[in-house]
Records
---
Amino acid sequence: MIKSDSILIVDDEPDVFDILEGILFKEGYQLHYASNGYEVFKFLESSLPDLILLDVMMPDSDGMDICRKIKQIPEWNSIPIIMITALNSKETLAQCLEAGAQDFIGKPVSTLEVRARVRSMLRLKKQHDELEKSRQKLEQLLLLREDMANAVIHDLRNPVVVIGLACELLTLTNLTEKQSQKVNQIAFSAQQLNHQLNSLLLMAKLESAQEVLNPKPVNLSVLLQEVVNEFEAQTLKKAINLTAKIPEAKRLVMVDPDLMKRVLENLLNNAIKFSPTNGYVSIEVEYPVETNTVKVHVRDSGSGVKDELKQSIFEKYEIGQRFEGIAQTGLGLAFCKMVIDAHQGSLSITDNQPQGAIFTLELNAELQFVVAS
């Protein structure tokens, strides 16, 4: 059985209700009546109509005020309101819309106008309700997908760890040089996969606000030097000229050291990966005098990032087209951006000259501690 639309008519004069009832009765609507604000809110607490016809001027109640209060309550906000007013000045009509009403009808009411505006508003309400149902359904599907993805990631971690352990055991046996190379290749791939799985899990926690930061006073210069040392072998293998400008720290930063180290590793690895063989990468820590901040600049000599990608490149799974032949996962930069955002900092990208990109990480002043001299 199809439910008929429900309309609440609010007017202090019973005669007006009788007129509107006569106009709308044959339309098959469920009509309800309230004579003041108290009766309106009492009705709404137990039943939500599909439409409210609300008189602007009533002796004991201000229709504008009733409309504002209804629109301030989330559960009632979506109920469309048509104001009925004898004041047809542009100022009054503007006030109706500012109060939250969707439409208005002038007095004396016209049968054709009332029916047309009521039908139009109920049609819009149905469309709104259908869209809201679709949104809620999509939201549930997205949550289900995230839950399934997280479950899969958790299940994948164990076999990846087993692969790594198996590779360690194989290195203890008598392997030929070629076999040893393959085992090392498998071990490195397993390590990379484990790193990506950990990043996915951490990103999911950051998105759902489940990840709790463990901030500590950190010397960013020392931390960055540790990261640079870790990449020496990788830069030698690719013949990358890596320069590091890391002055003595003038400030400590209040950050989660483990997460911040992973951010620096991702940014440096990204720069090395996208720079050509015999290219250069530079990394610099800056302690601006004019601001109580700390900045890290990572420059590469790759093909750069197109202007249209400079915003979307920080989104999950956005890999762009930066350098052909380079394996890209679309997670590293998104991970960095989420961690920096969680620390109330900023991560941006600009063009390097004559070619390449510059990623700049900046931590806000409220997260800093001045080092005692």
---
Amino acid sequence: MTPAVRLWAILPAAGVGRRMGSAIPKQYLELAGRTVIEHTLALFVSHARISGVVVALGPEDGYWNATAYATHPKVVRAMGGAERCHSVLNAVMALDGRAEDEDWILVHDAARPCLRLEDLDRLVDSLLDDPVGGLLGIPVRDTMKRAKGGQRIDGTVDRSGLWHAYTPQMFRLGLLRHALRDALAANDLVTDDASAIERLGHAPRLVEGHADNIKITRAEDLPLAHFYLRQQGRID
């Protein structure tokens, strides 16, 4: 990596977390004395190799200003969008004038507070010289079923070669901006950044991480995240 190429993190955090069944967006739920997003941000803000973090927030967000990172000099706020892809593109555009097209962007879900430092470093070290970029994930180990017509099984899917896609997902700023704009112009609301890159004919690299990098989407995920953070030594 040349000295001019830097690393930036983006956290899309405009979601309301309907599946949680909570009045509070999931990224602001309490987890071991802090909000979920504070646990997530801590790893990126304290990382010496990351130049800054952009957090994309909803226009009606009334919780962010009470967090520990609302006024942190390393954190920039961007306007969130209707879908994740809109929020990520807005955050990329917020780096205009700060970052270069060849800089690396690490997009990470705000509701994944259990990312391990070793996995983050492995991803970065694995991709710095990669022509495309890539993402953290783990190979599928469970038997996979395809459903049709409700909850009836339509077939068993061959799991060989299947991976669970996690975050961070790491791509060059210029490529990511182009990929997201192209997807949105086609009204393709891609659900992750790798999908946008794939649309352009690229093949992102998969870097194996740990299964405890869970995304909090349901109420039962909070105590599980608490357990994982304690196992990692990040909380008492």
---
Amino acid sequence: MILGVSGASGMIYAVRSLKHLLSAGYTVDLVASRASHQVWLKEDGVQMPTNPEQQADFWREQAGVQSAGKLRCHAWGNVGASIASGSFRALGMVIMPCSMSTVGKLAAGLSSDLLERAADVQIKEGRSLVVVPRETPLSLIHLRNLTTLAEAGARIVPAIPAWYHRPQSVEDLVDFVVARALDQLAIDCVPLRRWEGK
């Protein structure tokens, strides 16, 4: 699958999703936007490498998964990468976290970097695109852009945790959102206490 990481706050969502996907043996093609490098530095005081090979090592270290699964990282400016083509086969794409800037560009059909191009490909090919917006409050413009994406077939999974699974840590709250996002691609690799009813 394709994992896009845009410049919204909440890099932990990308880290936890990658941890679960790689631990379950999935192949992940990851592209982090230019802005995500700045956000990561601000949130965690850590500089993400720009070189794709170094970035793969970086992501594995952050996720705590050294050898499982397969991870290919792509430079944000490499619009000629494999994931930029409609002929590239994938289970789908998740953008997590997703900034409102990215949402706006996708809703307008614009793609100025590889993350946006890969997402645009999913839309034009009628494939699965899951957007995990991390913003509050949402303006009318944000809501209209999200509606446009939903009308184009994207699934919108806001980064809103639930409480019925009795979270004991921040990671539990994050994993709930990760699990619900991956559910949209029929990927079940996050240990999650699901609602069982009465």
